Amino acid sequence: WGALGQKGASMQYVLVNSKESNDVRLFAGTVQHTLDDNHRVTVPARWRFEGLSELFAVPDPRQPFLILLPDSELKKIVNDLETAEDVEPLVRRQFVRQLFSRATPCPLDRQGRLVLPYEICSDLGLRGEVMLAGGGSRIEIWRPENWYENQTKEENSFANTADRVGL
Q: Per-residue pLDDT tens for 121-156?
């Protein structure tokens, strides 16, 4: 676990989903990068894959960080919601409306950089050094001090859940 908080550390894992025989891309690890004056940040090379040309930026509704989602993940969230029998149709429509109205497309350039939305970065205090954290099928962008504070807060929960799942 020591490498997770170090500048420049990152990993990517690719698992094969035997049901659909499509690759399921997982973003794992952390890396600290600079958000430049044009609000560009470089996506680690190991996290880039064939066909990834943009990610959608959505501010987390509860904590001060930015979620980056490939379009396949947005589609999966909506599909899972549509098949959730315990969610009322009105609530589904409201959620989808809010999700897509908050999602900003961020194209990936040839150098692997994303231009992040200025207003959202400003609201979240994202400038200078930022922490990119793999979140499975998504990437999270945090202010480094918020990342480390949150990591400390979640340590007990992570350890307890690790015991439950046999990690």
A: 999 999 999 999 999 999 999 999 999 999 999 999
**Rounded CA separation 154/32 (Å):** 20
Rounded to 5°, angle at Cα 38 from 36 and 44: 50
Place of tokens 């947005």: 74
Per-residue model confidence (pLDDT) at position 25: 77
Q: Could you tell me which residues come within 8 angstroms of residue 74 by beta carbon, excluding any fewer than 6 positions away?
A: 56, 99, 100, 103
* pLDDT tens profile 96-118: 999 999 999 999 999 999 999 99
Q: Which residues contact 18 (CB under 8 A, 6 or more apart)?
A: none
The type of residue at 128 is G
Query: Which token pair is 30?
Result: 């952390």
Distance of alpha carbon 110 from alpha carbon 9, whole angstroms: 22
